[in-house]
Amino acid sequence: MSAKNVIDWAKNYVDLSNKHQLKLIEPMFMKEATYYSTFFGEYRGCTAIHEMMVTFFARFPDVHWEVPEYRAIEDQGVEFEFVMTATDAASGERIKRHGLERVYYTSDGLIRHISVESKSQQDSNE
Known about the structure:
Elements lengths: L2 H16 L3 H4 L3 E9 L3 E4 L1 H14 L4 E3 L4 E3 L3 E11 L6 E12 L5 E8 L5 E2 L1
Parallel strand pairs: 1-7
Antiparallel strand pairs: 1-2, 3-5, 4-5, 5-6, 6-7, 6-8
């Protein structure tokens, strides 16, 4: 698997996320995938991850990620910094979060693990 493959897969994942295409994102995960975020906790299995995403997109209906650069990393992974902007539907608050995401793939291109770390010193409510 080439670095270009994993980067293209990650770009596609972020693009579909920005388009809020959860039905297209769900099959991108292997059945036993894991997801950890310092913002939202830990999830095990594609069903739990999908349910978390449904809840997340309902809470932040206009969420968008800006990703300036993708880097291939060890273990069939991709790393990228992002700025997430959104409006919290419950409070009406504008949110801006900075983070670092790592996405790891199986050899056949399924997501097996995602790790999202906060860069909280830069996060804000606008």
